[in-house]
Amino acid sequence: MSVVQSIRSAAAAAIKALYEQTIPAKDIAINTTKPEFEGEYTVLVFPFTKFSRLKPEETADQLGKYLVEHNPDLVAGYNVIKGFLNLQICEQYWAQYLQQHFNNRNIGKKPSNGKKVMVEYSSPNTNKPLHLGHLRNNFLGYSIAEILKANGYDVIKANLVNDRGIHICKSMLAWQLFAHGDTPESTGIKGDHLVGDYYVKFETILKEQTEPIIARALENDFKDFQGTDLERIEKLVTLFHKPEIKADEEKHAKLNDEIKELSRKQTEIMQQAQIMLQQWEAGNHEVRTLWSTMNGWVYKGFDETYKRLGIDFDKMYYESETYLLGKDLVEEGLAKGVLFKKPDNSIWIDLTADGLDEKLLLRGDGTSVYMTQDLGTARLKYDDYQMEQSIYVVADEQNYHFKVLQLILKKLQEPCADGIFHLSYGMVELPHGRMKSREGTVVDADDLIDETITAAAEQTANSGKLDDMPEEDLQTLHKMLGIGAMKFFLLRVDPKKRMVFDPKESIELHGFTSVFVQYAHARIKSILREVAPNADKLEGYCHKGSLLPLEKELILLNEQYDSVLEEALKEMSPSVIANYVFQLAQQFNSFYAEKVEGKYTYSVQDAETPEKQKLRTQIVMLTARTIAKSMKLLGIDVPERM
RNA sequence: GGACCGGUAGCUCAGCUGGAUAGAGCAGCUGCCUUCUAAGCAGCAGGUCAUUGGUUCGAAUCCAAUCCGGUUCACCA
Questions:
Q1: Quick one: pLDDT at residue A535?
Q2: Which residue from A115, A131, A302, A637 has the highest number of Cβ atoms inside 10 Å of its Cβ?
Q3: Are A32 and A41 in contact (CB under 8 A)?
Q4: Residues A615, A603 contacting (CB under 8 angstroms)
């Protein structure tokens, strides 16, 4: 039981004894005591005044007295300021906690709760290399999986690869037309980048071919359009030229987009891509072969990137294998009367009663849409693992989609429905706005990794502390620091929030960064190397004397690790861990550096007594463990030296 | 227009199950390396917590309205 829990239950018992009132222990509000007051934890007594019928000060005083008398192992003393009851926790309590945990390898780890959870994350398209946005997703997914594991869950990390569809055909077609048989081997270009280059090539050609079509359409020359597209473009252009529409900037821009989109459809290259997609669906041998070859290049590239990032998966799903799923569910839903058919044979669900819209699930021609396959895949995952919870790490632009997905599954009475959880995260923006591929502002993941590692290498060389380190170890260290910096930078912000990614700041290695935390860890290890020879019999040692302020503070912070771990799970937010571990490192650095008249207050090596040395050795060992554990939850390793 | 999310220091973010004088980092300014790692420490300065009203002993935190920004409401994925 944590200190806070102990205080809560002691306070609940006290209130029962004093005022004959039963309050659930968890409802008692406890804060850490502000540094300017004496004590470690503070009970807010305002809520109790209604049954004590006393002033807040008097209530606090009664409660404090009772707690000290009845909990001699926990509460050593108290002071009252207004309705705040500041408690001083027994120094023995901290010393015992320290003795029990300083060498605990599994600190904070909860025993298995037998519950299975799937975390789906990463889920890339195979037409382009990974970019900054994917990094936030990957780091989040990995970290959440670690946090779940530490809280006792059995976790399946899944990756649903979007390996088919029109966007893949675009890369394939452009490669066919322009690559002259180039391969990653022949060009030396990483597979995912090579394929991405042809996607870009496709878009360039598409733009060239689209422009004259738009220009003609705006001059009322519609020879590029046929059938229903012809009808639509005529309407759109007529509207587009109306003065009242021109005046409404937003509407005008929207119309402009629609005209552009419709024009893109008419280009030769887009139509070729569409044909290729049909051929792929029909199982055309040549197309399928090209598809597997190019996807193979991409996977090899992705694997390399995943490996550098230290990210892995237990289960791969491929959309090419799941995109036809979901039709059975739709048929069943139709039979149950949950879904309905429109005159054109398309199948829908009506969610208007739930404040949403009607949603299409099968087109009139019987082909499925995104939602259909997600329904089917949800069932497939559940059939595979029967997990209690299925977490989707997906950007917040799909909030509506997941709301609808869960609702439909509920209406279809699928057993997986209740466990669906959309871990929605905000977009990563650059200081000047969103990344836009058309403006070439997309930050490539591989480039970014290289840059941060290089920055770490430069910094290490500048410090000159590790000139004796073998080259191989240095490279491991640079990677640890560089990748850690990226992960920390992207995880330290609450996932729900949009965040600004400043490339300059991301390679910054001072302040609220992983490097700061890693440095604190390396310092501790350095201390431990020095004192190791005379650090015997630590296991049985429980400090008896009094504790200096920062000794106590550090133990206290370490003790909070458990509840921080629970909090991170509850909030589904690694940022809770990042903030905590930074605070812990900060606290350690103060402990490390405090100096009075040229002498370190908390020196371990030159401690004033052998007892103090043992105590401080235990404290720094515990701190190093907590730092390492916390960072591990973020997917970040910590060095012995740096 | 409907729905959802956000607005806290010059910048990036904590704090939000209501509680003490709203905190970090960066940037700016002062000090501190003969000492267990200065990738550090100590300090200064910086705030109408978007606005207005309400609930309360007490509001950055809860409620309502307004303003600003974002996302979404596709037979795209």
A1: 65
A2: A302
A3: yes
A4: no
> DSSP labels for A168-189?
HHHHHHHHHHHSTT--HHHH--
Establish whether the CB of A351 is closer than 7 Å to any nucleic acid atom in strand B: no
Q: For helices A370-385 and A399-411, give the axis angle rounded to 10 degrees.
A: 60
Please report the ipTM that was assigned to this predicted complex.
Answer: 0.96
Nucleic strand B under 7 Å from the C-beta of A530: yes
In window 367-426 of A, residues with CB < 7 A from nucleic chain B are: 369-370, 396-401, 426
Within window 69-88 on A, which residues have Cβ closer than 7 Å to strand B?
81-84, 86
Instruction: In chain A, count H helices and then E strands.
Output: 25, 16
Class of domain A506-633 as given by CATH: mainly alpha
The dihedral over CA atoms of A89, A90, A92, A98, expressed in degrees to the nearest 10, equals: 0
Give the separation between CA A637 and CA A635, rounded to whole angstroms: 7
Q: Is the pLDDT of residue A385 over 80?
A: yes
A476 vs A456: CA distance, rounded Å: 11
**C-alpha closest to that of A430 among A121, A39, A131, A130:** A131
Considering only CA atoms, name the residue closest to the C1' of nucleotide B18.
Answer: A29
Q: Which nucleotides of B are covered by protein (CB under 7 A)?
A: 2-6, 11-15, 19-21, 24-27, 32, 34-42, 57-58, 70-77
pLDDT in tens, A162-171: 999 999 999 9
**Rounded Cα gap, residues A318 and A622, in angstroms:** 44
Q: Say how far A285 CA is from B74 C1', in Å.
A: 32
d(C-alpha A631, C-alpha A619), whole Å:
18
Tens digit of each residue's pLDDT (9 = 90 or more) over A332-348: 999 999 999 999 999 99
Strand B contact at CB of residue A589, distance < 7 A = yes
With 90 as the cut, is the pLDDT of residue A419 above it? yes
* Fold for the domain defined by A3-89: Gyrase A; domain 2 (3.30.1360)
Label the pairing between strands A315-318 and A30-32.
unpaired
| Residue A35: other Cβ atoms inside 10 A | 8
Q: What is the pLDDT of residue A532?
A: 79
Question: In A90-206, where do the E strands start and end?
Answer: 116-120, 154-161
What are A454-491's pLDDT values in tens digits? 999 999 999 889 999 999 999 999 999 999 999 999 99
Q: Provide long-range contacts, Cβ within 8 A and 24+ apart, for A460-468.
A: A460/A642, A465/A641, A465/A642, A466/A641, A466/A642
- Nucleotide showing the shortest C1' distance to residue A600 CA: B35
Q: What is the pLDDT of residue A389?
A: 96
* CB A226 within 7 Å, strand B: no
Residues A530 and A629 sit within 8 Å (Cβ to Cβ)? no
What are the pLDDT digits (tens) for A367-378?
A: 889 999 999 999
8 A C-beta contact, residue A631 and residue A484: yes
Scanning the structure block, which residue is given the tokens 């290399």?
Answer: A129
Indicate the domain borders of chain A: 3-89, 165-282, 506-633
- Kindly indicate the confidence band of residue A256, based on its pLDDT and cuts at 50, 70 and 90: confident
pLDDT at A642 over 90: yes
Beta-carbon contacts of A120 under 8 Å, excluding residues fewer than 6 positions away, are A141, A158, A159, A160, A381, A390, A391, A392, A393
What value does the mean pLDDT of chain A take? 93
